Amino acid sequence: DLQAIWQKYLPDxxxxxxxxHEALSKMVFDTEIYLKLPSAGYLGHGFTxxxxxxxxxxxxxxxxxxxxxxxxxxxxxxAALKMEQIRHTYLHYLLDPMALKYPLTLKRMEPLLTAxxxxxxxxxxxxxxxxxVTECLIRAIEARTLGNSKTxxxxxxxxxxxxxxxxxxxxxxxxxxLVKFEKDPAGLRTAYGDMLxxxxxxxxxxxxxQVQFAAKSDP
Length: 219
Prior knowledge:
This protein is mostly helical. The protein is about 55% helix and about 10% strand.
């Protein structure tokens, strides 16, 4: 009698969906406004958030399978969402396809990987410039949009430094590039290629060799 059980608990599921809908919609809207990049143009790609009341309370899990990205939320007594992880996955959904369009530009950045041997980051970032570049850009976006207009620049600088110490050595470059991007009417889809082209690989490689990497990876 699964249908009867489902009908019994459907209002509870609906209430949970409504509870998180506004916050998630605002995150998507704010992110797209900052990047000047509407996700409506991502035909063939999907970003889906599931609410799973039967999961461990307060957990957020993210996965992507090909061009489809998923986030599974397990509600808790705390109404606040772990929005940082959800937004991080959403940024991957927006930015991963862009990197695939510049294989030759990304290949020239392979010398950077040699400087990351002792970094505590996951091994996948040390072997794939596409993953590395995208993650650095995402972390730079997160640092640029940290807090609100009254957040001290020192807090954003700490976020950039922490990312660099994890091995994401292009975070500072993208952070500086985003400062210019924010003043330009062009969207990220237009600016992305110029951002990649502007990377001075020998200079960034030298800077990466001077980074004091953290002893262990972030949780």
